[in-house]
Amino acid sequence: MLFNSANMPYWLLLGMGVLLFLFVIFSGGGDEDIDVDVDVDADVDTDIDLDGEGSFNLGFLLGWAGVGKAPLILLLATDLSLWGLSGWMLNVWLESILNQIPSGIWNGIVLLLSLFIALLIGGLIARPMGRIFAEFGEDTSSDRLIGRNGTVCSATIPAEDKGRIGQIDVIDKSGNLVTINATIPKWAKVIPHHGERVIVINRKQDIYSVIAKDTPDVDRWLNLTKKKIRTK
Question: Which of 28, 139, 166, 208 could form a Cys-Cys staple with 157, CB 3.0–4.6 A?
């Protein structure tokens, strides 16, 4: 049963997930030369109002699946690996119950159920995985990136009160390219998008605060900094 043809799709999914994990590790977390245009940030307000009493919130669905909580390539690697593993385990479990290799409608049930399990578990571990991902490229005991310019490599950088994170690439003073988790402050008015330049202004644990470069937010930040200095 282990290498039965019924399990081949799940072995392929698991293999693709492992390859993506290896790519993330050996590429140092990826860099901005790898253009992932399909990166979708759950911060995008895509509420689709339906006729009736309820509404369908696409942003909530994406957030539930972990989109916006970790780099897309890492989330994809996790989901593919979990999909392959859970599909294979479900096939083995069903064979022990049915006394035969699952086929027909059971194949569709296993496929959909294993996908649901993968998205559920992947969404739950997305944020911890994002933190581990960020530690590949940064020295978490240092604030050496404060004041540096960076480039947005996720779809957008969400506000810090949204419960989600974005990603930026920054070159530190030693010339090392690092990828870090980032959000914009509550008072910021401009949302940075993919490929735009930002300035790192603060750090809270493993998440950095950034603002869009060459925007009115820079003046707001300077004014706030001056006020803090005067009150000391």
Answer: 166
CA 78 – CA 16 distance, rounded (Å): 10
Structure tokens at 40: 């979708």
The maximal CA–CA distance of the chain, rounded, in angstroms, is: 77
pTM above 0.90, yes or no: no
- Tokens 């911890």 belong to which residue? 128
Give 29-76 pLDDT, tens digit per residue. 544 333 333 343 434 343 334 344 444 455 556 666 666 666 677 788
Position 1: which residue type? M
Residue identified by tokens 């820079």 is: 218
CB distance 175 to 38 below 8 Å: no
In the DSSP assignment, the letter for residue 67 is B
- For 185, residues 6+ apart whose C-beta sits below 8 A from its C-beta are 159, 160, 201, 202, 209, 211
Query: Rounded to whole angstroms, how far apart are CA atoms 135 and 128?
Result: 11
DSSP 166: E
Whole-angstrom distance, CA of residue 64 vs CA of residue 52 = 23
Q: Which two tokens mark 204?
A: 């809270």
